[in-house]
Structure of Dimethylargininase:
Amino acid sequence: MPRLLVRRPSMTLADGELTHLDRVPVDPELAQRQWEAYIDVFRARGWDVVEVDPADAQPDGVFVEDAVVMFDELAVLCRAGAVSRRGESESVEAAVAASGIPFVRIEDPGTLDGGDVLKVGRTVYVGTSSRTNTQGIAQLRDVLDARGWSLVEVPVTKVLHLKSAVTALPDGTVVGFAPLVDDPSVFPDFLAIPEEHGTAVVVLDDSTVLMSADAPATAALYRSRGLEVVTTPVTEFEKLEGCVTCLSVRVRV
Ligand code: CIR
């Protein structure tokens, strides 16, 4: 049974980091309800939901994808690019260890945010963003080289993370909102989609994706390609530069 690693939103979510967006009011109770609905999508499909301990002092702790990335059975524990987010890692490491998942850590001076890591087949695209530095990427490369993954660096200057601009459909097509993608030619198979909030998809299975409810034209485009599309509202997380991918780590071993 696949597992889903999540952390419930902090009541201080509204104080989370912002890089490219202006701060607007965030409703923490609505965020809580949206988060519950998000994990219900997975529960309804038989996923086993594992909660990392709550971290009320960490406004961005809900974006658990940034703290850990799975490569086959191995977890890579990230070192956050934002100093304010480094306090998230201890509890994520504890949850990974308690789940019996083997792990390695990105160490100082490396930084890596999971939002900068996009896996497509055995290729790992890693964004060189304001959060992920060359030492972090070099450490990740060392981990992956021995395990049959190839790593491709991708410039990210227009959005927070690589996966704020692009993700991949189950067939490996990389989808992105072109005005936010630095260089679409990096990806062998790139599909431009019409809405910013349509870029983030979580692959639920070979024919089903989960995405934001705030991109209806993109959902229609994905359906026209034969995909089943599940949508869920994540407005309160989008206000903090988050999206559907950031809210969980999918563990498929
Ligand atoms: C941050 O700036 O770190 C948070 N406010 C948003 C993180 C979103 N995570 C992601 O895209 N993977």
